[in-house]
Amino acid sequence: MEPHWMFPDLDDDAVAAVGEALALADARLGGLARRLGVRGGLRSNPVGGLPYAGEVYGYLRLPEVAFGAGLYVARRCGNDLRMGPPWLVGAEIEVPCRYGEECTGHEVAAYAEGRLAYGDPLAAARALAAACDWLAGTALRESPAGWRLRNTESCAG
Description:
Layout: H1 3-6, H2 15-36, E1 43-46, E2 54-61, E3 66-73, E4 87-95, E5 106-110, E6 116-118, H3 121-139, H4 144-149
Antiparallel strand pairs: 1-2, 2-3, 3-4, 4-5, 4-6
């Protein structure tokens, strides 16, 4: 993954280290995908058609549970075109809602209980690698059905 995509103002001296951290994050998520028997890894997603600045994320979905990790530019709204800092990093395990399509699902575990903000590209990329490492280490501690049983939230009832 090209580091300048997420960090367009990245100093040339930092490109290799940031690229290595993003590659490590991708490898961790890709390894988890293989163990789960699904395809996946990190991908980049532009925001608002901008050639740069958006998000780098991975989302592995099974019928009973989904595992996601991402690095995002902090934006206040769709018209906010800042490229960062700060950059936000997070990872979560979600299960689908029992009550249908209106709900997108429920978080049953999260890396550091929410997204963490970083002011430095290398710190953000390393944090994404750490979040993917947490996800890979945590995801297989339960069966997919076991993660689903952790859902204590109710949207209807």
